[in-house]
UniProtKB/TrEMBL annotation:
Chain ranges of the GH3 middle domain: 346-429
MF-aspect GO terms: ligase activity
Stated family: Belongs to the IAA-amido conjugating enzyme family.
InterPro entries: GH3, GH3_C, GH3_M
Protein's organism: Urochloa decumbens
Keywords, alphabetical: Ligase
Residue ranges of every copy of the GH3 C-terminal domain listed in the record: 444-557
This protein's record includes keyword Ligase: yes
Protein name: Jasmonic acid-amido synthetase JAR1-like
Keyword Transmembrane helix: no
Amino acid sequence: MPIFSCEEAINEFEALTRDAGRVQQDTLKRILELNANAEYLNHFGLNGRTDVQSYKSCIPLCVHSDLEPYIQRIADGDSSPLLTGEPITSLSLSSGTTQGKPKFVPFTDELLENTLQISQTSYAFRNREYPIGKGKKALQFVYSSKQVETKGGIHATTATTNLYKRPRYKEGMKDMQTQCCSPDEVVFGPDFNQSLYCHLLYGLIYSDEIQQVFAPFAHSLVGAFQRFEEVWEDLCADIRDGVLSEKITVPSIREAVAKVLKPNPELADSIQKKCMGLSNWYGVIPALWPNAKYVYGIMTGSMEPYLKKLRHYAGHLPLISADYGASEGWVGANINPTVPPEQVTYAVLPQTGYFEFIPLEKPKAEEMENSASIHYIESDPVGLTEVEIGKIYEVVMTTFGGLYRYRLGDVVKIAGFHNSTPELQFICRRSLVLSINIDKNTEKDLQLAVEEAAKLLEAEKVEIMDFTSSIEKSSDPGRYVIFWELSSDANEDVLQSCANCLDLAFLDAGYLGSRKIKTIGPLELRILKKGTFKEILDHFLTLGGAVSQFKTPRFVNPLNIKVLQILKSNTTKSYLKTIYGDT
């Protein structure tokens, strides 16, 4: 593999984005040539044509359910060219945290190459602002999941595991000075808690060499340092004595750790002194990893609620949001790393796929409505270079891996252009979260409501550790149910005020009207025992998921019976909203 050059990566990006329209045409042509004999394409009469006009006129927009019959045939062992020209030998599992059922997505070598391309691009811009020294390491909280084999012999696992299994990916990341300080035995360990403990241990052993701290999601970073608060004394004991805790029972992990864990009382004393000198763990990351340049991971969308806690742990270190993509493929790179996560934009790499954008507009009567709710009028999709600054769109992607005019379900705003490629600001998932009848509230609406109500807890010095929602239809009328796990107990009157505030914070016109005429009942706030969301995570892991992929479901579908049972059994208090004349 050639030595990676940041300067060359930036120059290549600049060249590709100067004529993004031409690159898009070439990219679509290459995708369609590679997959010309795919059954899906020929079913719609494309018949080997590769021009944009023929493609858009023949191939309809699709969602995942449209592709499921083809993906199921792949999983069952059908090796004929269904979605791609070459047989698909690996599948990725999406998280499935909302519906309770993961979905299969094709994983191909092209997706691996796209991952490296986008990683190299964002790393080059990041390294220009925050240079990483040669031979340095990264503290990475990454975890594999167990691999399953479908009935047809196809390997299925998470996208993260599919990447970390491949030497090509690991070599590419090492070339970019982002080598994980933990060995494969820890990354691929069968027990999440033991892997997390050892990630922290390796990070401390190599503390002087760590120059970046990473997890795929902000949620995983916060969880890692919450765990550190609980086990730091055990970690110090291991380092002081050079003996790994008996709680770590996986033989391969113990064997790997034994190679690097030697008695080091001086390091243990230093860690202990630093930990005891912290005020409520503020700035623990730079305190223990003094050479770290930044903290890195996906921090937009459903990860935004974790930023306050993550900033607490990171102290003065900058938080940099990772690139924009999904299990289906990559969309854009963060080329402005100094911008805070709340304002981050992503430049689309025109060579990684073919992109279209569905214009979304609110009806005139709702233009001033302060809500993210889904009241959009759609227009015909436009190309990558045809989008307009300030306007809202849904992303549509065509990938090398057999997804054609695939509606990603993400709402983005065009923040500007870099050369001729747009820079996207992620707004929210378009998928509906809370709805009983004519009301429509998204994940973003829920987040805004929770943030508004959380202000009432500040005087109590109580934090919302995590939250989710569901709808209760067993009563008539149905109602919204919001679940909170808190850092400590709060005053009863304050929590009742929070319930009231939550209900008033949903500004969707359908919801407000339904509440006033009582076709939707009073919102219910349920307080959960500490550790409830950890229990949900554990359940997710039993389904074959990986911690690095896990995202707390902001809405629990009524069909997801197991997660609802966990929430119900861990509810300690309940508060019904009492505005609108409710009793």
